[in-house]
Amino acid sequence: VQLRESGPGLVKPSQTLSLTCTVSGGSITTSYYGWSWIRQPPGKGLEWIGNIAPSGSTNYSPSLKSRSSISRDTSNNQFSLQLSSVTPEDTAVYYCASLSSGYWGQGTQVTVSS
User: Fold this and answer.
1) pLDDT tens-digit profile of 46-105?
2) How far is residue 27's CA from residue 33's CA, in Å, rounded to a whole number?
3) Where residue 33 falls among pLDDT bands split at 50, 70, 90?
4) Under 8 Å CB-to-CB from 21, ≥6 apart: which residues?
5) What gap in Å lies between CA 8 and CA 77, rounded to an integer?
6) Per-residue b or e along 39-77, where b marks 16 or more CB atoms closer than 10 Å to that residue's CB
7) Helix-strand-coil split of the chain, %, nearest 5
């Protein structure tokens, strides 16, 4: 199974960050614990953002729930993250992953700056 993140590397403050994870070699309608988005700000640890279950239900970190939205496109085997009203504190490497299976994307750097 391979995961690949894609999206803009630079986002302006107050805008919405949008990332897509393309999964190959496996279906996003399987994986018991779902498909997650995780980020790592510079000099800090990993932070779980949320996930989408095979059923399509979503779960979010309480600290990011008000600004986060995870959706999926089953026809293209993709799932996406939208994070609204971004600030420079949202600058991080963003990863998509299947935590139950241990599959991770390589990560994509997103910088929030004007």
Assistant:
1) 999 999 998 899 999 999 999 999 999 999 999 999 999 999 999 999 999 998 889 999
2) 13
3) low
4) 3, 4, 5, 6, 35, 37, 78, 79, 80, 81, 96, 105
5) 20
6) beeeeeeeebbbbbbbeeebebeeebeebbebebeeeeb
7) 5, 50, 50
Cα(67)–Cα(85) distance, integer angstroms? 7
- Exposed (0-12), middle (13-18) or buried (19+): which is 6, by Cβ within 10 Å? middle
**Burial class of residue 79 in the structure, from the number of CB atoms within 10 Å of its CB (0-12 exposed, 13-18 middle, 19+ buried):** buried
What is the chain's Cα-based Rg?
A: 13
CB 59 within 8 A of CB 51: yes
d(CA 97, CA 99): 6
